[in-house]
Design a protein that fits this description.
28% of the residues lie in helices and 30% in strands. It is of the alpha+beta class. It has a single domain, classed as 2-Layer Sandwich (Alpha-Beta Plaits).
Length: 162
């Protein structure tokens, strides 16, 4: 009988879940994060007029690094063999702000949901860091999983975006 998937051992102590009996399959996850900002800040990002440089290029690198470092940041998170990380940004005047969307793929016994969410959060934090000198009122909002696929549970898609 397979061991239950729980982060607690029989005595109640925290432990990493055993995934040894799970098959390796192709898995993917998509997460998003939003950074709300003043319209003028968004326009400066659009025009490449942020003093620290290309905000979205640096945020893309931060997202990739964040996904790769997730097991070091999130306790009890398994290292996942990542096979791809795609990062896209949408400048949204109606927010106003930037939406970061990260798709992470892997072939492993567990999925890359945490890697996708960590990457989206890292992108949002980097946007904040690069723009805070001109807009300290920015907020990082709604870091969330959009979809996941692969593994025993198959495909899951969020029905509504926060």
């Amino acid at each position: 009988m397979a061991e239950p998937l729980t982060h607690f051992d029989p005595s109640g102590a925290a432990r990493m879940v055993a995934v040894t009996d799970k098959p390796e399959t192709a898995r993917a996850a998509v997460a998003e994060a939003r950074v709300r900002m003043a319209p003028a800040t968004l326009e400066r990002i659009r025009e490449g007029q942020i003093g620290k440089g290309d905000v979205l290029a640096v945020a893309r690198l931060a997202a990739i690094a964040g996904a790769k470092q997730t097991p070091q940041l999130i306790p009890l998170c398994h290292p996942v063999r990542l096979t791809g990380i795609d990062v896209d940004f949408a400048l949204e005047p109606e927010l106003p702000g930037v939406r970061a969307t990260v798709r992470v793929s892997a072939v492993d016994r567990t999925g890359p949901e945490m890697e996708a969410m960590t990457a989206a959060a890292a992108a949002a934090l980097t946007i904040y860091d690069m723009c805070k000198a001109i807009d300290r009122g920015m907020t990082i909002e709604s870091v969330y999983l959009v979809e996941k696929s692969g593994g025993k549970s198959g495909v899951w898609t969020r029905g509504d975006a926060p």
